[in-house]
Amino acid sequence: MRREVPQKLTDYGPLIFPAFMLLMFFVVPFSTMIAVSFFKRNPAGFYTPDFVFDNYARFISPFFGGVLTFSLGLAITVALLAVTIAFPFTYLLTRSTRATQTVWLVVLLSILSLSEVIIGFAWSTMLSRTAGITNALVALGLMSEPQALLPGFGAVLTGMVYQALPYTILVLYPALVRVDPTLMEAARTLGASPVRAFFNVLVPSLRNTIVATLIMVFVFALGSYLLPQILGRPSHWTLSVLITDQAIYQSNMPFAAAMAVFLVLISLALVGLTLLVGGRKEDA
Amino acid sequence: MSKLMINRRGVLAAGASAAGLFAMPSILRAEDKSLKVGVYGGYFQKSFDKHIFPEFTKATGIKVESVSEPTGEAWLVQLEQAAKAGEAPADVSMMSQTSTLKGQSTELWVPIDPAKIKHYNDLLERFVNKYPDGRVAGIGAVAWYITLVSNTKVFPTAPDSWAALWDADKKDKLGLLALVSNSFLLEVTAKTFMGGTNALDTEEGQLKAFAKLAEVKPNVRLWYRDEAQFEQALKSGEIPMGQYYHDVTGLAAADGFPVRSTFPKEGGIQDSGNWVISRASKKIDEAHVFIDYMSQPAIQGLMSRKVGTAPTLKKDVLDLKPEEFAAVSSDIEPIIPRYDLYTTKSDWLNQKWTELIVG
After folding, report:
1. Across residues A242-269, what is the average pLDDT?
2. Which of A67, B81, B254, B278 has its CA 20 to 30 A from that of A86?
């Protein structure tokens, strides 16, 4: 089919629905949030419409800078770990039989149906001293006495990677299924070991997919708010936790909005990066 | 837009009354006499639905639909947003003292007419929440104690003072509430080490309390927002000491869990909630009937026995036996939170607190 430049106004018809959805569910709420972030906070109550920079001024401090840096670092670590684990796994999955693939995909989809609360409480039980996995290690004679593995950074990371993994695999799966098997065969014929072929042929050929997946998991992890609370100490609380505190417990909507605007801008910047990467792909 | 809405409502109302002419009018009347009551979700809602609301409906014919409220200020925010749109997710709500004060600033609460509350004069003074000009904004609904709780297996002898939280042998063993405005640990610190909550009158005093509180930080394993998180850990001994609700701990102990609630010699923290009426409610009369009913000595007694709340009325009008009173309250003078601070200085206190526990 030939792509034609729209001639009449009605040719833009198909755009109306997506444009409407974008307007309703992104532009309007986000604009409202930006507006509220400039409102004046009334400590004894709610807020009054105004145009003040107090909320942003309060955010720009070493304390919130530290929290923002931690949140970004945590999200990046989760993204790297999830993709590092998911990429080889998904590759092996695509090489296995149809039946095996179906079973794995059903399992992954059922993990997706678990809420963050269930994942959090399940991991907090598994990592506890009284009922956790260390008890099994003690029973096996590998440890002398059970230990609590939470709260801590390791517990937060474990929970978040666990939560992100099914998404990561499901995003990588279509791309890996479409990889031309002759690519790897050619590499093998030319004398590359399987591991070398994997790193020198497969990984570079899917560079754009990997980058896009990293960004997706990063954005996903950036919004995490329950797992850091359940599995971590206060020093592991993300910016999202503090946003919730302000919005829900302090009813300080303007400040919560200002913090959220910061977070959304970072997410948007990363979407921009994805587009940039995608654009380069088409040039190549 | 709004005109359209009125028309639509009018049509619906006309339809309903037309149907009423032909159908059973008694059903319509029963539907009219109903009240949506917001109660803290979970334990409170379950207990009220089971023990209190059915009695109220029997006595007054007003059906109660209980609405589950989240803790914290979420409900206040939702009520406020809904009221701006003319909606009332609940006619009457249980509202914390701080939220009641905050709601006052936007006139969110319909003033309660004391003449319609028979036992108004028997209420303890601190359970009548007034607007600055003297109108009644809220009337005590329930009161409860936050006490020093511990796991009896890990700590065979009960602690007798809040100072136990600071002991070196409690390292990484405590569960405390995560917010300055619901843990009331500044008040506890002031009462335990600084001679009373009046020490928090000045910023200097508040900073001193923060400094003393910082010493407790290495002992804290969990700063909890969600009660279930701590209760589970306390029962299993994973986190063997902390602050928690006296009544809920008592129930857990009665269920056989190795936990206990202790009133320290400095007193338990007494927190409470008010009944307030949203200004968007169209059932002001029913709401007054409800608040009047809930403030009777017999019902306060029933609540103490069945729900485990401390009564809002003076002790001498109540029909509670001494042991029943002890199960929900104590003769030790309570620590009363400085709610005024959480409205006037809330942002500053919150910032200092967050820096203290996160930093």
Report:
1. 86
2. A67
Partners of B93 in the β-ladder: B38, B276
Q: How far apart are CA B161 and CA B98, in angstroms?
A: 27
Chain position carrying tokens 């079973």: A103
For A189-242, the pLDDT digits (tens) are 888 888 888 888 888 888 888 988 988 899 889 888 899 999 999 999 999 999
Q: Distance, in angstroms, between A230 CA and closest chain B CA?
A: 8
Q: In whole angstroms, give the CA distance from residue B232 to residue A37.
A: 38
CB contact under 8 A, B359 and A63: yes
Q: What are the tokens at B164?
A: 């136990």
Closest-CA distance of chain A to residue B72, Å: 5
The number of beta carbons lying within 10 Å of the beta carbon of residue A275 is 11
Torsion of Cα atoms, B95 then B96 then B98 then B99, to 10°: -30
Q: How many residues does chain B have?
A: 359
Rounded Cα distance, B336 and A76, in Å: 45
Best CA proximity match to A31, nearest among A42, A22, A19, A43: A22
The reply to whether residue B238 touches residue A129, judged by beta carbons under 8 angstroms, is yes
Partner residues linked to B273 by β-bridges: B96, B142
Helix or strand (DSSP H, E) at A270? helix A253-283
Which pTM was predicted?
0.80
Rounded Cα gap, residues A144 and A146, in angstroms = 7
Residues of chain B neighbouring A123 (CB-CB closer than 8 A): none
Tokens of A239: 């910016």
Q: Amino acid identity of B260?
A: R
Identify whether A151 is preceded by a cis peptide bond (ω within 30 of 0): yes
Cβ atoms within 10 A of the Cβ of B162, count?
A: 25
Interface contact flag, A234 B357, Cβ < 8 Å: yes
Contact A206, A269 (CB under 8 A): no
Residues B169-185 pLDDT 10s:
999 999 999 988 889 99
Q: What are phi and psi of B93, to 5 degrees?
A: -135, 150
Cis before A254? omega within 30: no
Report pLDDT digits (tens) over A33-73: 999 999 988 766 577 888 888 889 888 889 998 998 899 89
Q: Which residue of B has its CA nearest to A132?
A: B238
Alpha helix (H) residue ranges in chain B: 2-22, 25-32, 43-47, 53-60, 74-84, 97-104, 180-183, 185-193, 203-214, 227-236, 246-254, 284-294, 297-306, 322-328, 339-344, 346-358
**Cα dihedral A15/A16/A17/A23 (nearest 10):** 110
Residue B78: other Cβ atoms inside 10 A:
18
Q: Report yes or no: A18 at the B interface, CB cutoff 8 Å.
A: no
What's the first-to-final CA gap in chain B, in angstroms? 50
Q: Which residues of B have a CB under 8 Å from any CB of A?
A: 70, 72-74, 76-77, 80, 101-103, 105-106, 178-179, 181-182, 221-223, 225-226, 229, 233, 236-238, 343-347, 350-351, 354-355, 357-359
Between the CA of residue A111 and those of A85, A123, A165, A226, B223, what are the distances in Å?
16, 13, 9, 17, 28
Output the CA torsion B279→B282→B286→B289 (10° steps).
20
Partner-chain residue, chosen from A43, A235, A242, that has the shortest CB–CB distance to B344: A43
Token pair in block for residue B38: 């917001």
Measured in residues, chain A has a length of 284
Nearest to A248 among B73, B351, B358 (CB): B73
| A130 close to B (CB below 8 A) | yes
Chain A residues with CB-CB distance to B237 below 8 A: 130
